[in-house]
Amino acid sequence: MAVFLSNDALVGRLVPGPTMERGHALNLYAHPKEPKLVYCFGKYVVARNLNDSGDNFVYRGHKYDVGAAAFSPNGYWVASGDAGGFLRVWSWDNPEHVLKVEVQVFAGAIKDLQWDGESKKIVVVGDGKGVVAKCVMWDTGNAAGEMVGHSKKAITCAYRQARPFRIMTGSEDFKCAFYKGPPFKLDHTCAEHKNYVNKVAYSPSGDFVASVGSDKKIVLYDGKEGTVAGELKGDGKAHPQGSVYSCAWAPDSSKLLTASADKALHLWDVGAKSLVATKAMGADVADMQMAAVWVHGQAMSVSLSGDVNYLDEALNVTKVVQAPQAPVSAMAVVGSTIVAGCNDGTVFKSTDAKSWTKLDGAVPRSHVRAAHGGKVTAVAAFGGGFATAGFDDTVRFCDGAAYDAEVKVDGQPKGLAALGGDNVAVATTKGLAIVSKGATFAGVVKFEAVAWDATALAAAPDGSKFAVGAKDGAIRVFDASLAEVAALPPQRGEITSLAWSPDGSKLAAGDADREIKVYDASAGFAVVVQNLWRFHTARVTALAWSPDSMFLASSSNDESIFYWSLANPQKSAHKYDFTHKDGTTALAFLGGNVVSAGNDACVCLWTV
Q1: In angstroms, rounded to a whole number, what is the distance separating the alpha carbons of residues 600 and 43?
Q2: Considering only CA atoms, which of 564, 559, 565 is closest in space to residue 585?
Q3: Which among 81, 159, 332, 390 is placed 20 to 30 Å from 523, CA to CA?
Q4: CB within 8 A of 5, min separation 6: which ones?
């Protein structure tokens, strides 16, 4: 199994943001020398440059969702743990990212982990069905002590980075456990909290360790002995309106940044035990602050919406980094802008092929500020902007900067394409619709119910007609008034993707039987290519024509992309392997590069 994307043809990649879960703190860590942040998304570990989102890396070695990842203090290794209880230690500085060791630490999910200051030991906590904390050697996975003290799942840990080494863990049993070693043994437990302990963190100096919890308390302990050194609470509760999810120390250990469910950030002077600054990050559920991190002189927080907020000394937001938090289900290139829709209804755009901007929607109770109330099924260029369709039975129109119109359709949209003028064609689970978005009217112009199940749609470049693929393998062509003008013989499998060439002369169709056919749209849809382009080992998921209409890119659930030549259809296609783990979902061209999107929530650019 390929555990990382390593391909000379890969020229760019947009990566997902961290996995967010309401009520659960997010753990973020940074490289000790490089300005890189490491976090988890699904089964993947993502490393991203703090200053350049285009400088990133995706590790794909886990079989289960990853719960924690951290760089070693020497910067050479990464440790990551998953929901199966497996800890993997792999090389960061080696271009092959070689696996050093894999060991099953628990019989349950790993929630957090930390390295010691010498890059020799790793403490791991989680849901171990009995054993919930363990310290292991980095190169063998052998235990370095017996760590007991919790009666429920441990969800956070902190490792003192200087001798004498100490470990503190926090748990859902409302307790913090303090260990001395190595070999590490329980010294004592602290019962200062009256609810979940969400985060424990050692100061860089090692003098203090802080704990924060769902009881709204912030407690300080002596770093060497683990005795209570005080509480940060200002005039009352530290965060009176919500659970405290995370904390982060300033590089000089003089201040502590805390993040809370009350949508606020607080900055504390640890020596004076006083509140220095506070910042309200919003009023919506999406604005809950789930993580705080202070690395390389930069303070940051992460909202439940997935926004990574860069902060100055007064806690003012100076920059926001956004990215998908769900698989990309639809994608299109609009001019020079990449537009991606996701399984959770969110829509993002990228103008530089490096970073994302979310197009906020107003879906009720959506903590991700979704544009659609369900999976986004199609994205299409329209006028100077684009249109999107989703499983909320809605087509929405964006002028390029923000959504400005929406139209309800009958049935869940399966395909979408722009026609001439102000109209788009929509194929739904109940029929075909012509939807208009003009200066004075936005609505359904015409709807025709059909007796077959539409699965894909593509329109001719001039908007005069469009083709609809069906579950029965047939392809039907309609004009802009929904009159059927052609019917093609069924292919052997369900039509999964259609693509009309930019010059309007060719129509390509991919099916669930792995075959790709090309029809001559200028000559009665005669078959041009058949029984040749069938190299995928799973259903075809997407097709895209090159700007000159001479090459066709295809993708599949087999994680590969093929690049076919229309001039030499019998020639072996160029193949890109291991493009997206769990399958590629969408393809497009951006200039001379192929753009692909997948179930790993990545969007990649490939040179041809």
Answers
A1: 8
A2: 559
A3: 332
A4: 13, 58, 60, 578, 579, 602, 604
How many other β-carbons are positioned within 10 Å of the β-carbon of residue 225? 13
Instruction: Give me the architecture of the 17-321 domain, per CATH.
Output: 7 Propeller (2.130)
pLDDT at position 361, please? 84
Q: Which residues of 526-556 are buried (b: 16+ CB within 10 A; e: fewer)?
A: eebbeeebebbeebbbbbbbbeebebbbbbb
Which pLDDT tens digit goes with each residue over 225-264?
A: 999 999 999 777 777 789 999 999 999 999 999 999 999 9
- Tell me if residue 582 falls in helix, strand or coil: coil
pTM for the model stands at 0.96
pLDDT at position 234 = 75
pLDDT digits (tens, 9 = 90+) for 83-95: 999 999 999 999 9
**CA gap 248, 27 in Å, rounded:** 10
Q: Residue 338: phi, psi to the nearest 5?
A: -90, 125
Inter-residue long-range contacts of 183-187, CB under 8 Å, 24+ positions, other chains counted: 183/135, 183/144, 183/145, 183/146, 184/123, 184/135, 184/144, 184/145, 184/146, 184/147, 185/145, 185/146, 185/147, 186/147, 186/148, 186/149, 187/226
For CA atoms 556, 581, 58, 373, give the dihedral sign: positive
Instruction: Report the CATH number of the 328-607 domain.
Output: 2.130.10.10
Beta bridge partners of 169: 157, 177
Contact 456, 468 (CB under 8 A): yes
Q: What count of Cα atoms within 13 Å lies in the side-chain half-sphere of residue 371?
A: 31
What are the residue ranges spanned by the domains of the chain? 17-321, 328-607
Q: What angle do CA 178, 184, 187 make, to 5 degrees?
A: 35
396 has which bridge partners? 388, 406
| Positions in the chain short of pLDDT 50 | 1-2, 5
Instruction: Name 402's Cβ contacts closer than 8 Å, sequence gap at least 6.
Output: 359
- Look at residues 408, 444, 409, 406 and name the one whose alpha carbon lies nearest to residue 428: 409
Phi-psi region of 377 (alpha: psi -120 to 50; beta: other; left: phi over 0): alpha
Helices and strands (DSSP H and E) totals, the chain: 0, 55
Nearest to 156 by CA among 184, 135, 176: 176
Q: Do domains 17-321 and 328-607 have the same CATH topology?
A: yes
Task: Find the distance separating the first CA and the last CA of the chain, reported in whole Å.
Answer: 25
Distance CA 19, CA 425 (A): 35
Measure the CA–CA gap between 8 and 420, rounded to whole angstroms.
40
